[in-house]
Amino acid sequence: MDKIRIRGGRPLSGDIFIHGAKNATLPLMAAGLLTDERLILSNVPLLADIETMATLLAQHGIATERLGNEGRVLSLGGAITNTEAPYDIVRKMRASILVLGPLLARCREARVSLPGGCAIGARPVDLHLKGLEQMGAEIRLEGGYVNAAVPQGLRGADIVFPFVSVGATENLLMAASLAEGRSTLSNAAREPEITDLALCLMAMGARIDGVGSDQLLVEGVAQLHGARHDIVPDRIETGTYACAAAIAGGSVMLRGARLEHIAALATALGEAGVEVVEDKGGLAVRRLNGLHGTDVQTAPYPGFPTDMQAQFMSLMCVAEGAAMITETIFENRFMHAPELNRMGARINVHGASAIVRGVTSLQGAPVMATDLRASVSLVLAGLAARGETVVNRVYHLDRGYEAVERQLSACGADIERTSD
Ligand code: UD1
Questions:
Q1: For 171, which of 8, 25, 101, 131 could close a Cys bridge (C-beta 3.0–4.6 Å)?
Q2: Is residue 74 within 8 Å of 41, Cβ to Cβ?
Q3: E strands within 28-135?
Q4: Mind listing the pLDDT tens digit for each residue in 184-211?
Q5: pLDDT, tens digit, for every residue of 265-307?
Q6: What pTM does this model have?
């Protein structure tokens, strides 16, 4: 099994290329189920989760071809031949639930394994199911599967989400695009990945208003057609490398990154003593002097992203003073805290909040984490730690970060991937 070995204490300097967003690509691939024609996606990241989604789509009859330089262009196409998403694939990746809306819209039936809980919390899919029921679907949960049918076809509905859900908004936006009549999605998620999905659906012929707002109005159409779409840059990869420059010191240029997508993080970094400015088609990130403890609370977009909470916590471990970090989206998303404490951090978790008291330095240690963002937060801690840090279970990292060790070593970090 691969490991990442880091010898900390070297400042970063250089360019880092920001890839297309994983969390935009996965729903966009599911949108390939909405038409028999070709959907061409460019700026696709080379990640394990993309392969998992391609395997799932293949099982439904949709072939994914990698084109272009390095295979960063995906061509999806084919007729749906099977409406079952099996447990063996869904359990590997929760985003698999995103095939439910498109399959129901196209085939009037679907059988999709329930994703179940995961390392960061229970993560139910009740909002996805309730929304589809409002659109006329009959849903039974049996043997760990969602069995859904809508013999007369989906009908438009007024759906008010009781709280913001990225996945439910995506699933229902896709379903509503092919439903009969008008749908409104209120209290919808506004993440840039949703805007990206809406733009692609519109290029495929969908009629959507209110894109970028928390109220999406969808006028269903009888069919969608093929399209080409360029995937939005990954704001979480952007934020992660911004935190890398902040914790290691030095300055980096994040090529292709967009400031408007990381506004809440950039504000927090500014308070902490890190400059983030737009520069020549990207973002220049520079640690000014010392780091200062800065409180953050996660919230749906445009708030501070839960997917940046672990990385920001690593940064606060070596800041002067204390920081309170509050997680409001997932109930169990502090598993990096005890690992950071093993590296000499002073973090106390109380319910949904963690108090981080800054220390002058961390010490390298063997560490591991059970989710993607927690794993990368340990890599960041390793950049600042004295001595050697070995991050185990690198397959979590590979789900969301393309060549993290190459990107960081090109900027001067002492980091390498090793295998047993
Ligand atoms: C997506 C992202 C994930 C990110 C999260 C929050 C992808 C592939 N994943 O996940 O990286 O951390 O948004 O920004 O894009 N909930 C319910 N019932 C539901 C749906 C959600 O109770 O039917 C709860 C969840 O348990 C969680 C909260 O709502 O507490 C937000 O979840 P949601 O926004 O749906 O996250 P995902 O779409 O799963």
A1: 101
A2: yes
A3: 39-42, 63-67, 73-77, 84-85, 109-113
A4: 999 999 999 999 999 999 999 999 999 9
A5: 999 999 999 999 999 889 999 999 899 999 999 999 999 999 9
A6: 0.97
CA–centroid distance, residue 378 to ligand 1 (Å): 23
> In this structure, which amino acid lies at residue 198?
A
Residue 107 is a catalytic residue: no
Contacts of 42 (CB under 8 A, 6+ apart): 20, 68, 72, 73, 74, 228, 229, 230, 231
Helix axes 309-317, 263-272, angle to 10 degrees: 0
Sequence-separated (6 or more) residues with CB below 8 Å from residue 406 = none
Q: Is 21 in the pocket of ligand 1 (CB under 6 A)?
A: no
Contacts of residue 248, defined as CB under 8 A and 6 or more positions apart, other chains included, come to 8, 10, 11, 12, 383, 384, 413
What residue type is assigned to position 295 of the chain?
D
Peptide bond into 302 cis (omega under 30): yes
Contact status, residue 417 vs residue 14, Cβ threshold 8 Å:
no
DSSP code at position 18: -
Question: Which of 107, 118, 317, 411 is labelled catalytic?
Answer: 118
CA-only gyration radius of the chain, Å: 21
Nearest CA to ligand 1 atom 7: 23
Between CA 246 and CA 251, with CA 249 as vertex, the angle to 5 degrees is 80
The Cα–Cα gap between 12 and 200 comes to 36
Quick one: which of 120, 118, 121, 138 has its CA closest to 130?
A: 138
Cβ contact 262:242 at 8 Å: yes
Q: How far apart are CA 72 and CA 186, in angstroms?
A: 34
Q: Are 76 and 41 in contact (CB under 8 A)?
A: yes
